[in-house]
Each structure stands twice: as structure tokens, then as C-alpha cells.
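User: Here's a chain of 167 residues. Predict its fold as C-alpha cells.
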Amino acid sequence: MADGPKIVGPGDGGFVDLGGLGIRFMVEGEETGGQFALVEHPLEPRALGAPMHRHTNEDEYSYVIEGHMGAQLGEEVVFAEPGDLVFKPRGQWHTFWNAGDEPARLLELISPPGFENYFREMGELVADGPPDPERRAAIAAKYELEVDPESVAGLVEGHGLRFGGAE
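Assistant: Prediction complete.
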């Protein structure tokens, strides 16, 4: 647990760029006694955050700070504006994207923590160039994350998005 007050300034915390989706590490699980982690997700205009996926262990809460967030939660598509909170429970297939033509920023609370380290590992993987599908799958398996890569084409086409820095 943290020993006292902590201020996280706008430039503080480590950062990973996954091509359209950024991850800024704000509060680590160790600092909360294993209760939650908090990251910020800057999203480029019209960027898809991830393929459809579901978590075995974590609930996620996305709070929109700026911009417009689209999300698919199971079969339902929702849109969120600044001040809205979107709950993505463990076990539910979901994804999210920037539904606007301006940058978006989300605060993502992950409970319990640990999944934030998935982003670190994915950042290392993409830093080496195009990610090896076997390594990507091994990282997902480590975090008990099911990913549907086949969903990307339909999401990109259906919502006018781009994925991974590609148009």
C-alpha cells in the first residue's frame, strides 16, 4: 500500500503506445493493496482500442474524460460522453473505440489489478516491430484474456475506425 498521499501529474506515470491506443500507468495495484489499478487511455480519432475480448478475472470501468467513446458490450453498442462511466464486467465480450474525430481520453479502473501488466508486455512486444501472433496469444493466455481477432474487420468497417495505427 502507498505510505501517504500521492499526486499523479498530467505527465507522470509510464506510458505505452499500442498504435492508436495509449496506456498511461497512474495507480498500480500494489499501491491499493491489491484492490484496483488505474490507467489512462488516450485514443486517437476513430481508433479501435482492441478486438472483441473478454476477461476471466477483471472488471473494467471506463470513465470518459474527453471525446466520445463507443463500446460494444456483448451484442449492445453504446456511446459515452465526458462524465459517463461504462462498466465492462468480467466474462462479457466487449471492445471500445474513439467514436469521434478528435482525440479521446478515458480513465480505466481495473479490479482486481494485475491486467495493467498485460499492457506493459504488449508494449514490449509491439516495440520490437510487427507482433508475433504466437507471442501475442501467449501473453493473452497468461492474463486469461480471450481475444477474437476476426472481429476487427467488422468493427473497423461498421464504425468507420482504424486499428493499430492503420487506416
